[in-house]
Each structure stands twice: as C-alpha cells, then as structure tokens.
Here is the input.
Amino acid sequence: MTELLWIRDAQLMTPEPAGRGDVLVAFGRILAVGPGLRPDGLGVATRVLEADGHLLCPGLVDGLVHFGGGGGEGGFETRMPPLAAESALAAGVTTMVGALGTDDVTRSHADLLACARALAARGLSAYVLTGSYQLPPVTLTGSVRRDLALVPEMIGVGEVAIADHRGSQPGAAELARLASDARVGGMLGGKSGKVLVHVGDAAEGLALLRETSSRWPVPIAQWHPTHVNRNPRLFEDGLAFVREGGSIDFTTSTTPDMLAGGEIPAARALALALAAGAPIARLSMSSDGQASLPHFDASGRLLSLEPAPIASLLADVVAAVLQHGVSLSDALAAASTSPAAIWGLRRKGRIAAGLDADLVLLDRNSLALRWTMAGGRIG
Ligand code: ZN
Here is the structure.
C-alpha cells in the first residue's frame, strides 16, 4: 500500500517562481502541483509534510560525480572512496552523472554501475558515462555504441581529457570518431549521447572541439566541456563556445590554492556568464564530487588529499544568489533544469506533474537545506 505524500503550503520554485502551493507525491512521481489541492477525500493513507512557506525546489542534478571514487593520481594511497548515499541526500543532490576519470586501470564501469545501483536503492538516480580520460575509450560491452544502446544507466561518454597532461592527447579525427559513436549509440538507446570533456589548463583550451566540429558533422552541442572556470582564459574561451552554440559546465569544488591560481569560483562564473548574455539553458554547475582535492603547504609540498565535496554544488547555488546577485531560479536551473536537459533526463530537473519526485526544501531566508526527497522518499 503506497502512501500519498501531501507537501503543503510551499513557495514553489519549479525552478521558476510559481507562487504558494501544494505538491502531491506517490509511487515516486509528482502527481499534482498547485494551490489548494485537497487529497483528503481519496481514501488513501496520506502523510502531510508542512512546508510552512519555505522554498520547494527541484532536487539538484549533479552532472559530474566520481561516485565510484576518483583520484589515484598520486599512487594507490590517493584513491578516493566511493560516495555514500547520505552525502548526496545531505547535499540536496538527487540525480548524479558518474564518470571514471584518470584511473581506468583499477576502476571499471562494472564497479561504477554497481555503485549507481546501490545509490538507486536509496531513491537516488545515478547515471554513468562510458569511456574515461583516455582514448581509445574503455567500455563495458566492447564499444561506446553498444554501451549507450544497451545499458540503461549509460547516457554519454566522458570525461574525455583535452588540453591536459593526463589525457591521451587525442587528435581531431579520434575525437570525431568518439563523438559519432556516442551520437549513434545515444540515438539507438534514446539517450543524449553527449561527450563530457574534461578541459585541462593547457593554452589550447577548447580549440580541439571547434576544429572537430568544423571538419566533421559533429554538432557543437554534442560536447559538454567541464572545469571551464579553472582560469580566466578558459572561461573567456567558454563564453565564446556558448556563443557558437555550445554548452559549458563550471566545477564547484575547489581549494584555496586553486583559487589563488586563478580559478573563478563557480558561483561567480555563473553570474559573469549570465551577465555576458549566455543563456541559462547552456550553463551548468557540477561538483566533481569524490575527485581528489590536494592541499599544499606554503612551500608547495603536498600535505593531504581529500575527496571533493558533493555539498559544494548547493553551496554554490546559494552563493550565486546571496553573494553574486543571480536569481534563485537561474541558480537552481544551473544545478537542475539545465544539466537535466543537457543530459536528456526528461523526468528530472523541474517540478511538474508526472516528473520524478526529486525535491528539496530550502529555508526561505538562509536557503539552508531543510530536507531532500529522492524518488518520493525523504532522505
Ligand atoms: Zn575532470
């Protein structure tokens, strides 16, 4: 016997402001949204959640989380642990896109899928990218096309590294082949088939993506470059990329050293990009959660490594609003509607009847997280 959840008297952010209203949830889906819903005559067991005028928003969609554990770039003792479901729920994240990263030797897609399914058992939605930093791509089934066509959770490829010493320095032809395989696999499997591109700090920036899309019929929107806020030069390149029809992603997890090295905080990058006229639909933020963040002493000696916090995503949504003047609906969209649309997740990233019941309640004053609902369950 399922229970009907009646979220009463919320300030609805869908993520656009939609006034005061109620939301009914059952079977993991949103049944109805609006003012004055009256479910009490239906004869179904109903649990009331009083929202008390706080902000009901879409659960966050984190477009890059190494939920199987990332890192490992300083030896085996630097491998980061897998993400705990509690960490995502405590951070307001209800949907994640997971990727391998640098280490495709001791990490595998089979393990990543197992982690995704463990997260799903807690109501979370976890998707997986095939491939890794390197080319030719490592896959689960033997090809990118087969992975995307046949494995339900696999929705794209990445992160493939360009402009980075840890990548395999692919040429344009190699990238065109990868993007085309991703596209065809995505078409067959009804997925977005996008390529998440890890962009390092080499001066070439996004040039290789432009070259590939100009020489072959690979749409510019096929790529979704991430870490575009890592320095001002790449950020400007990213804004140009958006003007050319592309989308870009800003990484929220950071360290004091990275900021001192020129990284633009994601919340600030979002504000600057919007002010420069970039459409919110082509801007996203992601945490890069469970990647390894290094801490150095004053002489540059590595002191410690810690997992990048998934909580940095919500922190930057809040910072974008409270510190950088971004509207709450735009800040939320960068971490819900936009990544959901970019990754082709049709039941994610918005509040509307028929969509998945992935919701967060934020304090109307501080924007602090009050609760997270993932798949119709309060975490
Ligand atoms: Zn990366």
Notes: The longest strand covers residues 4-13. The chain has two domains: 4-57+349-378, 60-342. Residues 72 and 227 are 19 Å apart (CA to CA).
